[in-house]
Amino acid sequence: MERVDGVEIPTGRGDDAQLLEDNAAVHLAYTGFPWEDEANVYIAGHRLGYEGTESHLAFYDIDKMENGDEILLTDSEGEEYTYRVFETLTVEPTELQVLDPIEGKNIISLQACTLPDYSDRIIVRGELVEG
Question: Which pTM does this prediction carry?
C-alpha cells in the first residue's frame, strides 16, 4: 500500500469512473470521517488501474495486509489518525452493508476489486487506535 503514501484522496461518488481513474483512491461520499466518534471512513481504489495515472496499481497489494497492520491517515488540517487492521472480507459488489458504520467504533474500510476477474470486492477494515 506504499503507492498511496502521501497522496491526496478526494471525496466523491463510487460510480465516478473519471475520479477513480485520476486519483489513487476516493473517499466515498456520505461515509464517515476520522474525527467522528462513530464512523466508517470508506476509501476505494483500483488494484490495477490505468497506466500513467494515479490509479495505476494503487491498491495492488491490498490482499497482503494482515490483522495488526497499521493504516495511517492525515486529514486536510494535518491531524494524523492511526487505524489497526482487524478484518479482511471478500464481498459481492451488491453487498452495500460494508459502507455502514459499526456501532460504537470508528473504522476505516479500504476497498478494491478481487483479482483476476474483478467479480468481487476485497475490504480491509481497521479500527482507530490513535487520533
Answer: 0.94
